[in-house]
Design a protein that fits this description.
By secondary structure, the chain is an alpha+beta fold.
């Protein structure tokens, strides 16, 4: 169907505008790359098997694996993907797991219980337009704490469910965004955290019977907090924070130990100048494992308790560690490991003999993994200085192998979302296809505002400084122009969510140097975004972006929002969106498409009616991926006008 010069096609849940038919030859070339898959650890079952999440059909579901490289037994078969799988503790009588599931990506996730003995599934939450997640069981399995917006749709309260009776009631309703962290060993107290922003959280403890909240004092008045857990004795706590230490501000989040009764306090990672990404304790109280994020690479550590002495570990493949969990007997540690040349898989460390066993081996579509390209870490100078020297921005550089001498490579710049996110060298089948099949380089920068590089770096793009991160893309374009192997006349950008805004803003400022851009679920106008995002997210986003209700930020948003300046976008644009997106509503996509088209520029537009903030169903993700490659072929690699 063609209307007002726009060719529109509706196929099932897909709506596409101005997107040409995908050539069969391209679909065939992409097929193997789109059939790679990964496996992610969910936890241990009481009988020593592992629960993993992986996709064999359209969506990621729960599977059980009971030995290294054993058969993966699929347990759930839903058209929607599962999220937040939480296995009941081995110290309880429960045998099963809780999981979350929404409808069409709307993120109004409901919690369910899967009983491993009967294979029955039961709904645990209200089944309404509420968001529920973060399931946490007490050690005896008598109670399950979780976060929910059921009270008013805006605040994320903490609820507690009596597992035996099935009754649930709100425990903490003081307003804001709260999450449950850990039950005390006796189940009578619950560690909780109120999240305000990436640099501000408030921890405390709640009496589970009375609901009385005691907030912990925060040194310096404001700090970031990661995990919080009771020590095995139930008195001391372990936690991750960047609170200042006596007389000294802290850039990174370190693992700390505090016993209020004795006053003993120790920073366990004092000598590691990087963030601790997370930690977990063994049920038997004998070990603690934690992971540090060192320039985007994960490093695993295990401490013996209570001595806090390092335990010898086997060498791990270089990569990024996802979830990790001790076995019920505490003698093994399972973890998810992903690398630039291998999808996520689950490995198990035997602590007694420091050995490593691989439990899953995910498929790579029949491709030769030896030909996958590993990125190098580069740092390029940007516009401002630190201590009298140019600030440098880290970026991962995927470069095709065996490039003929004198050949200049086209470049795709891939910008992460967040904005407090961080791009790490994980497996990216699109980057591999671009490098190996099309001879295109990919640069993945961590512009200012990214996490993983310290508190100061994280705050450099806040509020009125938003476009400083866009200037970091301008500096990357300068760097590309100086590299003899890169073609500065053929550069494109892509990104999702906040990265989608970065794409639009980059095109707004640098259309003369960027041929094309792909914006996925991106913000196009901060004022309309903050007005229309779901109410439970609005204050969290205002803490990062600024408050659109103030005159100062209204003016800033009017200046930096791409939808207000469509005449400045002269590069070719492809916008992709999920209709049910609660974070960045689909209206953000439609207004930028309308605005740019109104300026005479053609735009490709893709909308999925059964997706939300990103594309989780394989058929949808495959179509989007194929359309994106076709877009690059026509507007990045082709010789035509922009």
């Amino acid at each position: 169907m063609k209307r007002d010069g726009v060719v529109r096609e509706e196929v099932g849940n897909r709506v596409s505008e101005n997107i040409p038919a995908i050539p069969a030859e391209l679909l065939e070339r992409l097929n193997r790359y789109q059939n790679t898959r990964g496996a992610n650890l969910a936890g241990w079952t009481r009988d020593g098997c592992l629960l993993v999440s992986t996709r064999f059909a359209e969506t990621a579901q729960a599977h059980r694996v009971c030995q290294p490289m054993g058969v993966r037994e699929q347990l759930t078969f839903y058209p929607e993907p599962l999220g937040g799988i939480t296995v009941a503790p081995s110290t309880s009588k429960l045998d099963g797991f809780a999981f979350g599931k929404d409808k069409g990506g709307d993120e109004f996730s409901q919690l369910h219980w899967f009983d491993l003995k009967t294979r029955n599934v039961s709904l645990l939450t209200d089944g309404k337009r509420t968001q529920n997640g973060g399931a946490l069981f007490s050690r005896d399995g008598a109670r399950m704490a979780y976060s929910s917006t059921a009270r008013n749709g805006t605040d994320t309260d903490i609820w507690v469910r009596d597992v035996a009776t099935g009754t649930a009631k709100p425990l903490l309703t003081t307003g804001g965004s709260w999450s449950a962290q850990d039950f005390s060993p006796d189940g009578k107290r619950l560690l909780v955290t109120k999240y305000v922003s990436a640099s501000e959280s408030y921890p405390g403890v709640v009496d589970v019977d009375t609901g009385k909240l005691e907030l912990f004092p925060v040194d310096g008045g404001k700090a970031a907090f990661g995990g919080f857990a009771f020590a095995p004795d139930g008195r001391a706590v372990y936690f991750v924070s960047d609170e200042p230490l006596p007389g000294q501000a802290q850039e990174f989040q370190t693992l700390r130990y505090h016993d209020p009764a004795s006053g003993k306090f120790d920073v366990l990672t004092r000598d590691i100048p990087w963030d601790v990404d997370g930690f977990t304790l063994a049920d038997n109280g004998k070990h603690l494992a934690y992971v540090t994020n060192e320039d985007g690479i994960s490093k695993l550590h295990v401490l013996a308790l209570p001595s806090h002495q390092e335990v010898r570990l086997p060498a791990l493949p270089i990569g990024v560690i996802g979830g990790f969990s001790f076995s019920p007997d505490g003698q093994r540690l399972a973890l998810t490991l992903n690398s630039a040349t291998s999808p996520s898989d689950v490995y198990v460390v035997d602590l007694a003999n420091a050995s490593l066993a691989r439990w899953t081996q995910s498929e790579v579509g029949g491709l030769d993994a030896a030909k996958f390209v590993a990125p190098t870490l580069v740092r390029y100078p940007t516009f401002d200085q630190v201590d009298g020297k140019p600030r440098t921005i880290p970026a991962f550089f995927y470069k095709p192998a065996n490039v003929p001498a004198g050949k200049k490579l086209p470049v795709v710049i891939n910008i992460h979302g967040g904005p407090e996110g961080q791009s790490q060298p994980t497996f990216n089948p699109t980057a591999q296809f671009l490098a190996n099949e099309l001879g295109v380089a990919m640069l993945v920068p961590n512009v200012r505002g990214s996490s993983g590089y310290g508190k100061t770096y994280l705050s450099l793009d806040n509020a009125a400084k938003r476009e400083d991160s866009v200037k970091d893309i301008g500096a990357l374009l300068d760097w590309i122009a100086k590299q003899p192997e890169l073609d500065a006349s053929r550069v494109a950008v892509q990104g999702g969510s906040y990265g989608g805004y970065m794409v639009l803003a980059s095109l707004m400022h640098y259309s003369d140097r960027i041929r094309a851009g792909v914006d996925v679920v991106g913000i196009s106008d901060f004022t309309t975004f903050l007005t229309n995002t779901e109410s439970y997210r609005r204050d969290l986003r205002r803490a990062e972006y600024g408050d659109e209700r103030t005159e100062e930020m209204k003016q800033v948003f009017a200046q930096i929002s791409p939808a207000r300046h469509p005449q400045r976008i002269k590069s070719r644009l492809f916008v992709a969106q999920g209709k049910n997106d609660p974070r960045v509503p689909y209206t953000e996509a439609e207004q930028i498409v309308k605005a740019v088209r109104g300026n005479g520029q053609p735009v490709w537009y893709l909308l999925f009616n059964d997706e939300g903030h990103g594309f989780k169903k394989k058929a949808n993700a495959d179509y989007y991926g194929a359309a994106t490659i076709l877009f690059w072929q026509q507007h990045l690699l082709g010789g035509g006008a922009k």
